[in-house]
Amino acid sequence: MAKIFRAFRNKMVKESRFRKYLIYAMGEIILVVIGILIALSINKLNNSYQNSKKEIIILSEIRENLVADTIQINRIAKFHKTKKKEIYSILHLISQNKPSEENRNTLLKYFTTGTIFEIKEFHSKSVGYANLINSGNIELIKERKLRNLITQYYLSTSKNIGAMEVAKNNTRQFKEYIIPKTISNWSLKKLTGLDFELENQEYVVGLNNDKKAISSLMQMSMQIDFSGSVLSEFQKNIKDLINRIDLKIKTTDK
Question: Is the distance from CB of 117 to CB of 201 less than 8 angstroms?
Fold first, then answer.
């Protein structure tokens, strides 16, 4: 094709038909420009298509992570409900201040097999978001509102780590304080079946005026309430994000 155009052009030049040659040359330039523009347009459409595919992949992964976060939050909420119930049962026993074998057994059960010394931490699953950040192109998510909401969610979950550390420290301190008070020949016999030459101290009596023990239990209860309100807000944000992501995927697939 190029040889044909070249031959045609040389023929016009030799025959001194400059005006016709000029028109032809302009037409040739226009055709080249149109060809370049078409190629650029096709390349742009292809890039846009590829970016849309990447966006859907990232959003689908983030959605999967958000669903996992919801499941984790529900499990923690169930655990908190059990733990708070145990805290108030312990407070009730302490307030009675009655040294009975039943009360001793109940307290020993809470302090050895209960949830009182356990902590369930919330760690957001952020693989999809991490992949988005690591790609160096957060604007793969074209919708600014959705992009900002995703970023805000993961920033807020990372800030919750400090509150969890406080709860862990308070629980550990309570455990270190209360466990020595329950150690006696009677309690060790119950737990191990072995005899020790220890004083059989009545740990049920006296805890009702133990300010440190009672305040620690109340503090743990309040931390559960605080954690519950934070996780409830996370869950609300997750629901909103999943709805927005579903809508984005649905409209992009069309």
Answer: no
Residue 209 DSSP symbol: G
Q: Is residue 142 classed as helix, strand or coil in its secondary structure?
A: coil
167 touches 119 (CB < 8 A): yes
Q: What is the mean pLDDT of residues 15-39?
A: 64
Q: Between the CA of residue 184 and those of 107, 175, 179, 203, 241, what are the distances in Å? A: 13, 16, 10, 9, 54
Closest residue by Cα to residue 234 from 56, 53, 69? 69
The amino acid occupying position 22 is L
In whole angstroms, give the CA distance from residue 50 to residue 43.
10
Query: Is 80 exceeded by the pLDDT of residue 10?
Result: no
144-182 vs 211-253: helix axis angle to the nearest 10? 160
Structural tokens at position 210 = 């133990």
Global pTM value: 0.76
- Tokens representing residue 93 in the block: 């026993």
Provide the 3-class DSSP secondary structure of residue 26. Answer: helix
CB 205 within 8 A of CB 97: yes
Q: Give tens-digit pLDDT for 175-217.
A: 888 888 777 767 777 777 777 776 666 555 677 888 898 999 9
Cβ contacts of 176 within 8 Å, gap of 6 or more: none
Gyration radius (Cα) of the chain, Å? 36
Token pair 């347009």 is found at 41
